[in-house]
Automatic annotation (TrEMBL):
Protein name per its UniProtKB record: Mediator of RNA polymerase II transcription subunit 27
UniProt source species: Brassicogethes aeneus (Rape pollen beetle)
This protein's UniProt keywords: Nucleus, Transcription, Transcription regulation
Pfam families per record: Med27 (PF11571)
InterPro entries, alphabetized: Mediator_Med27 (IPR021627)
Sequence similarity: Belongs to the Mediator complex subunit 27 family.
A Gene Ontology cellular-component term: mediator complex
Highest taxon of the lineage: Eukaryota
Localization (cell): Nucleus
GO molecular function per UniProt: transcription coactivator activity
Swiss-Prot/TrEMBL GO biological process terms: regulation of transcription by RNA polymerase II
Primary location group: nucleus
Length: 295
């Protein structure tokens, strides 16, 4: 990404230089013969000056072509069908619909990508138990689903997590009746919104203090959006249908490592900032901080 930005800046600078020298040509032609050309051979001096500017413009044009050739080709436009005609509406209320549709398509594509990654991770961590050794006449005991448990069981797990990490402030609400929503505050660093589905962590959003508590809206700060993406990866990594309480404790232990998000340097490069961001990734085993590019 950084290399693409540098190439784009180089191409824009080349276009800027080309436009400046083209303007010199028009200025020279419009001014014609000037007094500083002298009285002797002023026509030849004018032609020589014009040829030099044209040679410079030709060189600038080659530079622009080379810079543009190095740029990464952008992806194709979103195919929104007949809704593309909304951008041609003259009514201000309808003009805004096109931008909202584009954002909706982007969000849908992102959900599809996350779902595919989560499905691959869950498939790799699946717990398949074979019952071939049991007699076919013996009735198997029905196991309780992790999504259908009593609120008291969930409350006990949250209480144990609260005792395990005293420097994390937990606030529990139940907007979805049986399934709780936890707000986990790491001091003044950040605040995580963790939604449960029974004993399983279903959704995580990390925001700054003072931002809205809506769990479906991303943070307006890039650093917390990166942390949210990493929380989704960790949520899938620690997923364990057979040991849900251990999965919750493991995730909270990993989440607790973000208490020094803005104070510790990257374990690999030793810098606090890279691309204007602190180390937003925490190793899933060692909890050591890394930049996204250094992990």
């Amino acid at each position: 990404m950084e290399r693409d930005i540098e190439q784009l800046n180089s191409a824009l600078n080349s276009v800027k230089v080309l436009r400046s020298n083209v303007r010199r040509i028009f200025d020279s032609v419009s001014n014609g013969l000037r007094a500083d050309h002298g009285d002797d051979g002023k026509e030849n001096k004018f032609i020589t000056e014009l040829q030099e500017i044209l040679t410079t413009v030709n060189t600038n044009l080659r530079d622009v072509e080379g810079s543009v050739a190095n740029l990464t080709t952008p992806g194709g436009p979103f195919s929104l069908g007949n809704t593309t005609y909304l951008s041609q509406e003259t009514t201000l209320e309808r003009q805004a619909l096109y931008g909202q549709l584009v954002n909706s398509y982007k969000w849908t594509d992102k959900i599809r990508e996350y779902s595919a990654l989560a499905g691959n991770i869950l498939a790799a961590n699946s717990f398949n138990k074979s019952y071939k050794t049991f007699s076919t006449t013996k009735r198997r005991k029905t196991q309780t689903s992790n999504h259908n448990v009593s609120p008291e069981v969930i409350e006990n797990i949250i209480t144990n997590v609260d005792r395990l990490f005293p420097d994390i402030t937990l606030t529990t609400s139940r907007p979805f009746v049986a399934n709780p929503l936890i707000q986990a505050s790491l001091g003044r660093v950040l605040r995580g919104h963790i939604a449960f589905k029974g004993l399983m962590i279903e959704w995580v959003v990390v925001k700054a203090h003072g931002e809205s508590t809506d769990i479906w809206t991303e943070s307006r700060y890039k650093v917390f959006r990166k942390v949210t993406e990493n929380c989704h990866a960790a949520m899938c990594h620690f997923h364990s249908p057979m040991m849900p309480e251990l999965a919750v404790r493991s995730f909270m232990h990993w989440f607790h490592s973000y208490q020094n998000l803005f104070s510790v340097p990257c374990k690999r490069c030793g810098n606090h900032l890279h691309n204007n961001l602190p180390p937003t990734w925490r190793d899933l085993r060692t909890l050591e901080p890394y930049h996204e590019e250094c992990k």
